[in-house]
Queue: 3 jobs
Job 1
Amino acid sequence: MSPGEPERPGRQEHTAQPDQAEQAEIAELAVELQRLLLVSSRILRSHTASQAVSASQFSVLAHLDRAGESTPGALADFEHVSPPVMTRVLGRLGRAGLVDRTAHPEDGRQVRVTLTAAGRELVRAGRAERDAWLRSRLDGISAAERESLREATALLRRTLVPPRD
Amino acid sequence: MSPGEPERPGRQEHTAQPDQAEQAEIAELAVELQRLLLVSSRILRSHTASQAVSASQFSVLAHLDRAGESTPGALADFEHVSPPVMTRVLGRLGRAGLVDRTAHPEDGRQVRVTLTAAGRELVRAGRAERDAWLRSRLDGISAAERESLREATALLRRTLVPPRD
DNA sequence: TATTGTTATACTCTATAACTATA
DNA sequence: TATAGTTATAGAGTATAACAATA
């Protein structure tokens, strides 16, 4: 350990690792994580490209099915996209007859977004087929490994995704 | 456990969980994973949007820095994109003076892709700043948590990314 | 004046199909 | 005939800036 470096409890768990090595270790993890996200997103997309609606669109439909209704702004916030992007997504979903956009009962600036019957049907029937490829992959690993993935998923969400509300 | 269901060793680890519950558990993990990949990719992109080259482009440069040289087809395969996509990426990188495309010495059909001096400079200098945001996030969690992430990253790669070569 | 949503514009990412050149 | 790469075409995804309507 280099002289003059004060101990910093809380940053170092149980090893007396110098800071520089720790930073290098973090940098390497960042690179691996970045690449995994880049590549696995492409792979996942290629396996859902033949679906009726894209992953982005389905995510909005699924949220509406859970929440009942929402507004373009709230949906954009939840999905972490800019408002114009959500306008486009809702435009497509609307033209496909999957969502309705009606006047907001209380605030004339806002728009009330709801699922149509067809939209509700699609999201509920589609869930099973939707993640078929991903599920087939998860089916091939052990229950203990899936538990690890579950914990890592939650950890990654806490680490990367800023809290909403 | 439902009657008539035979035991299937290897599918069930240490619990006597019925298949249906296991399938539901897998489906839920698939949904969480899909959403994490969708959202975290967006967040990560928004934090690297101001960089000189996009994540896709940088990934190609970094691979070339490691491998020394490659071909469009091999790069497309490694990056999990279609050949025309790689043509476009290389076109941009070439116009930016970061890669050279020269005649392949042995096979006239192939193209030899190499880094220019500027390309090598960019990838080496850029690595530090590139993942600054991601590293800042990883810096905020414990060493034990990072170790979990490292293992989960490797597991996810094994599970989702088909082996190359 | 601030908020909500949309439109306009521009760029990246992505794929399939058709084409050229070489083996 | 098969392979490597590019071009052509089309669409989704993304953002910022400018605008309209309402609070």
Job 2
Amino acid sequence: MADGDMVWQGRICIIDVSYQAQSEGGTVLVAHARAEAGHSVTMLVHGLRPFVVIAAPDDAQNDRLESWLDDVRIDERVVQIHDPEILWCEEGERPHWRVDVTQPHVVPKLRDHLSERWLVTSADIVFPMRLFLDLDLGPHMEVSGSVIHARSRAPLEIASAFEGVDFLEVANSIREAGGSGLYSTDLVIRCGIEDLKDTEPFRAPFVTASFDLETSVVESTILCAAMVIDRAGVQTEYTFQGNEREILAGMTRLIRDEDPDILTGYNIDNFDLPRIDQRAEDLSGKDRGLLLDMFGWGRDPVVGGSMRALPSRSQSRRWSIGGRAVMDAWWEARTALRPQRESLRFVSELLFPDRPELRKMDIDASRMDEEWAQRPDEVLRYCVMDTVLPIEILEAIHAIRGKEALASVARMPFQRAVGGTTSQWIDSLMIRLADREKVAIPRTRSGPRRDQIVGGHVQDVDSGLHPWIAVLDFKSMYPSIMIEKNICFTTRIDAKDAPSEDVYLSPDGTAYLGRSHRSGLVPRLLQQLMEERDRQKIAMKVARNEDDEVTAFFHDRLQFAVKILMNSFYGVFASSFYRFTHQDIGASITAWARSNIRGVITTLEDENQRVVYGDTDSIFISAPVDSDIPTRIPQVGEKDRESFEIARNTTVEFGQSLAKRFTKAGAELEFEAALAAMFSHGAKKRYFGQVVWPEEDLLIRGYEVRRSDSFVILTNCMTSSFERILAGETTQAVEDIRTLIQRVRNRDVAPKNLVISRSCKGKINRKDGSVDFSVYANPDGLPYVKAAKQRLARGLNFTPGMKVGYLVTDATSSPMSVVDWHEDETGEIQTDFDPEYYAKRIATAMGRITEVFGWNEKELLQGSQQSSLDRWM
DNA sequence: ACGACGCCCTAA
DNA sequence: TCAGTTAGGGCGTCGT
């Protein structure tokens, strides 16, 4: 089949991009994608060349410049130097030369060399991103190209033309088209950059593979494995047994045949992938072909000597598998749900409480070798279940669609949305804008961290139950300030150089040029994102009104991705290493923010209004409501109902009028909520309240209820106490607490409701897989480290960063004794705990709150009763 | 008993 | 998770 005979055209979503150096010179981008039509595509994209940009430092003389340029020109890594262009850089506006280079990999050494004489910019941008930056593309695009190869899942008329072709011949024609051989994708096309067109985002029909291993507890071997392929919602299950080589080769064949875009599983980053990596390496000896048979999971060719199909983990925790995205369901669930415990069972119970069949515990994971020997069929069933669950988890938390939306909004490959960092998302938008606006792209900054900057203002709060509160907050405070004050590394100037007019001077002395002098890149980008979010919200509402829930959901993900992205800006620009920032930017943003909130607080206090609390961008103010109006929500028709409604309306109107009054350009104050009552025990960042507008709701911040390292009994006790307190039933609240404490002392509680869980760090020894806890100053003084060690001794999985559950068994000694919680995994019934410790913890936490009503920790612990709380109410 | 310190987790 | 930030609460250990 001659190259160019057949053309394929369609919409795709790019998963991952790499590049292939051409032996005759030049570089071809290799983009792996999923077509809207359902098949996978590899695109060999021609027409981009790696480059860096240079400019002369101030002291360079013009006559020396030519000879300097000649020196660059004769460097064998340099292909050509373009005509100079005036670009803005921190040293001022000046000519910059784009220097094309032979291959991306020469850039690091070349830039070091050039830096001796030149200001070197655009010199640390990963080459594959150039496709998106230079052509201003997002992951969803329309593409056309000549078909080089097609397999059976490609469109029928194309696939049939390639039936029975000789694979060696095909591999050759792919290499001639710029690729490296037979990719695992359904279709391989060749195109030029002019063949790629931006398109509206659409829901790409990704294919997902989820897998799970069962491994020996006594050695590092793999006993069996399972994999499920999800293609357009249709799931097919596979199991693998036999010797390890057969198991691994079987999984690899399935991945190459099914060609999934996404690989998932539970804790695969830290467990399954490293285990396969290690076993494949052990079993293959030095045979690279054998290694690829067992672990050649990438989309790259596995014949021809290249090892690029092999998954790899650079310095980071994250795995990269060429052409695919690795999404660990553990990590996604952890960040989305912040669950109290992180085991697959626990997360499944959290998400699917009505489906106990998903987590029936009939296998003891700590005795896997015996289980496998005695009941292999059940172990396999268990294994399959653990491959289905990760897919259901990703679905339930909308992880895949959320990342696709983020990729679309940040305009980068799907894989980069999944595995990238906040600064990479912002880079993707900033670099293309800077290029367009003739601003040089500085390198990522290195060197020592500067001193910490001052953050937001947190107002002191008095303890007590504060009736009738209006909550106001500044809308998108940091982004708004950045827009309003034209904050950008291109507009910041030293105050002494500031022009006399149209300058913004922050309270901490940082100056920014106004728009008449120069319009900042960052404010423009934020403005565009704000407008984009509004558009998506409107599209969402339109779809919802038409009862098109699928489309509404699609726009909801997009608007949410914009929100996430916008909220990331401040942190990235306040960091010390980000390429497009300056030392002073972060501190100036927070200085303006403090000035805004303090301004409102001071004004109100000068008018004798009571500001109860405020944190960074929020203000809690007492509304002018008679103090004898009850804050408890009365039933409709109850005698107090009328005065309650009046108080609520008064609070709402009060809040709305304040919002209107204090809103100014770049600082829009919004009325957020009306509270019938707000409680504080006097500590910042901890409060709860009864929301009565816009909806009735219990608001809790900071308290143990919100913390993943609390225990169920305390959390439940606290929640019900809050409800009682807000209902005016403080006597009953105290009685309940005291009763509970007595029950705990009598061991009349379920131990699983006493499990405390905290995340535990550690470093894995690459050689023997052991875990080293020396990151801690005193590891044996920390209960969760002791628990992690116990898990490991038991043969249970522990990976650094994981949360570890434990029961305190004796707190009279120091350090206290604990036992790791393993009932979920081993089935062993655990009953040992220290009742006094738990009684004390409950009393301490609840005492802080009841103390406000005259009951301190000690009194909660004591048996005697004397209730006269109501005097307080 | 008390304060310094290490550590985790949360609010924003 | 070679790269978002600071403010703040609270628990536990250790040394005095």
Job 3
Amino acid sequence: MTERMQNAADAGPGPHYLALRDHLAGEIAQGALAVGARLPSERQLQLGSGAARGTVREALFQLEAEGLIYRRDRSGWYVSPPPVVYDPTRWAGFMAYVAEQGRVPTTETLGKQSVAASAADAAVFGCAIGTPLFALDRRRAIDGRPVLVERILVDPVIAPDLLDEGLDGSLTAVLTGRYGVRVVRNHVEMRPCALIKDVARALGVASGTPGLLVVRRSFDAGDRIIEYDHEYWRHDAIRVLVEVRTRD
Amino acid sequence: MTERMQNAADAGPGPHYLALRDHLAGEIAQGALAVGARLPSERQLQLGSGAARGTVREALFQLEAEGLIYRRDRSGWYVSPPPVVYDPTRWAGFMAYVAEQGRVPTTETLGKQSVAASAADAAVFGCAIGTPLFALDRRRAIDGRPVLVERILVDPVIAPDLLDEGLDGSLTAVLTGRYGVRVVRNHVEMRPCALIKDVARALGVASGTPGLLVVRRSFDAGDRIIEYDHEYWRHDAIRVLVEVRTRD
DNA sequence: GAGTGGTCTAGACCACCTT
DNA sequence: AGGTGGTCTAGACCACTCA
């Protein structure tokens, strides 16, 4: 379907950068450029295509936006691995569902600290601005490639010694096992965004790379917020899937 | 949070295009550039900033990727209206949930025809390749601004005279009211994509504009597929929200 | 240190939208 | 017809990665 709707009318000549895009996309589809393979350098593509470097880069940006390739800052362009499927209705934690799909998940804690609640945080936690909250910054990778960075906020009242725990696994498991918390409701919000500044740096991507922002809020039976999580994903690493039974 | 994580370390000078981005983002935040307002032309921004036009365009692309502005092909750059919230678990149809949010939805039928099932379609419908299917192409707008184009496939066996119906409203309503179909399960898949070719043209955007692809499949109680829908959204027009009660 | 992508310049012509 | 964004060229220097 994507192919049918978006590749119709391939006939016309169109811009040069789209011709180069089609050429590279073809090599990826045919396997001449395998998953994870590095593309020729921009200057080599320039020679091969006779275009200016800016035009070559436009073709590469197009493929990046489509999720076919990605870049490692100042290292090169590479063919993207297939995305993992994320189902917010069957939330099992990153480590679990990535492993289930035959991939190797890893988590790295970038920092843990106590921060003062911003106005927005205070609204979510129902506390006063400036109230201390635990903030956990993590980077997660699939098959060694960083795919997201996240910041999780937790109310210290719920997990007083959280920052002393091992936090490279499932945070939900820690909250459940160690603090007896029971999550009964998840609220998940998603939107395309651009990865910039800190986030881009942490993921090793160029600022402005397209991404997906996933905001998760977990609540217990008393509707207390348990986790407030912002995940910045590389947009080509994730596919969201929701399965819903219509209520009668 | 977005602000906290992404705007930290604003101190450094950084690239010129990010400085211009910050300037324009500030004007939008402060309301100096109102929602729907048109930005100065690229050449005017060039004069104001002393940068080359390519640099100005980089700043604009950045803001576009963040969803703050959008372009009308060869007309200009405009401040994006706020997104509508889409909740696949409370699926009520585009016309309904857009109106609920105080916006004005419209639908336009671009074409309706019988097409032969592709290999992918055949797999979804459980039919042979080449089997005739009804295809409905529509464009939908919010407050007059086109936000998505879609192609819906329906099995003629389920709705034999579908193409003779009025199809500018809710298709699900037609299938339910006229053909007695009952949808009990929805399968929704989402991923960032690039809007290219036909889709870009139909939305009046430049090829390569970032978008969101939503694929919906509806099933009845007998697990027969009722609707198979591909929606290509402008990425700044939609925000996905899922609310899930954890099963016990 | 060689090579890579990241940023930037200063032009140019075109297709298309707007008036 | 004039202005807009879309495409393209042919350079340049820089920050960074990698061997």
